[in-house]
Amino acid sequence: MSREEGGVVLRRRLSCTTCFDALWFCYSPVHQMQQYYRIGTLDNCSEKWNALVDCLNLKTKSAVELEEILETREKVTPPHIWSLRTPEEARSHWEELFGRLDERE
Fold this sequence. Notes:
This protein is mainly α. It contains five helices and two strands.
């Protein structure tokens, strides 16, 4: 996403380092043993390879094209599993779910 600060347009920089690090860690004995313990199979790291190849392909795109692709991906991406609430929202949600427990019988 490009931002304007002081009349200068700042473009995001795409770095594939995180994808490479994730792929490197995927082949580590620690990760493979965790996968074997949790799931019962070793990880073939195909998702990590796909992410790295996708990142490298995006590096070949022009800046305008890259911005469009990243913006459409952000719109399509589902919201994070943990939604942050303000204290007031948290209180009302708690009351809605568990308010009946405070009532005396």
